[in-house]
Amino acid sequence: MSLSKLCSGLRAFAPAPRCWHSRALATLAEDVKSDTTFRIPIIDFSKFRSATSLSEKRRTADEIVSGFKEVGFIYLEKHGIPRPMYKQAYYKSAEFFNLPAEVKDRLAWEDPRANRGYVKVGRERVTQSADAKEIAELRAKAPDFKETMEIGRDWDKTWKNRWPEESAVPDFRDTMLHLFQECHDLHTLVMRAIAIGLDLEERFFDNKINEQYHNLRLLSYPPIKRQLLEEEGQARAGAHSDYGTLTLLFQDSVGGLEVQNPHTKQFQPATPISGTIVVNAGDLLARWSNDVLRSTLHRVVAPPARQINATESITPARQSIAFFCNPNQGARIECLPTCTQAGQAKYSPVTTEQYIVRRLSETYT
């Protein structure tokens, strides 16, 4: 029985029943091309964590790599990060964003090389464009309607995190640093799975990602009148790809994340599924793999809104936490030996810092 028949009548991102298993890998490439069956696979990562042999690990690794080849996104369940840990991060994130504007502004983001600090609503405009004038016009016309707090590795000797006073948000720093470390550890394991799935040695990436050159981003999407989000080009966050290896996304139940079907170019909801992390491949992993793994466009749009009068409605607030996983700062990103196509590499080599600093410089004002 084909995967499409097995899953007939189910919506693309419904959390149940499950339509993904290893026997279906061969049919996913064909199946995913139809909007009515396009889905993000749900992968039980506990099977990889508890595996006692390479062959056991390979089964989960193949599921992960197949998901990134075809969709660029997966849901990871039983991932090992304790629910109380990321729930606590949500609470502390909300406390931070509820601080007075003048307090948050004192922690403002200043330099793309640091990528740390508070970013107020409208300052960032994520896009695939690299043209400064075009980005400025987009920002003026349709800025991203969100605010963020950017946190990096805390021991960096050059760039320091910009923490609020302990009295303002008690335990904020400790909460975020604990989550940062847990996310790095999960990133390491998922990259080992990807290495196996790409026919590399399991620990191939270990010494290329061990510097923890990552970014923990807290996001707050304030309520907004729906008509403002329906204007041309406007979104809570515009269509974009991420920059690094992987993104680990914790999202609340509000929804709004949409993923582009790579084949039809239509955007479809990535419905929140309790207990899972949404994981997507980023640009540097796509470059490393010579586009064998997809860095897929995604955006955040208006979820269902509450009517406030006869002609207007307002969206609910939304919270999410994204952990942007990156290779080491000076890692040289070039085509992996198992990913050449007829001996051809699509991209010139680039270092992590060169690529990410350039992209950040383009998207912030």
UniProtKB/TrEMBL annotation:
Xref: Gene3D superfamilies: B-lactam Antibiotic, Isopenicillin N Synthase, Chain
Family: Belongs to the iron/ascorbate-dependent oxidoreductase family.
High-level lineage: Eukaryota, Fungi, Dikarya, Basidiomycota, Agaricomycotina
Sequence intervals crossing the membrane: none
Protein name: Clavaminate synthase-like protein
Record organism: Rhodofomes roseus
This protein's record includes keyword Transferase: no
Domain Fe2OG dioxygenase: 212-327
UniProt keyword list: Iron, Metal-binding, Oxidoreductase
Any Pfam family matching the protein: DIOX_N
InterPro entries: DIOX_N, IPNS-like_FE2OG_OXY, IPNS-like_sf, Oxoglu/Fe-dep_dioxygenase_dom
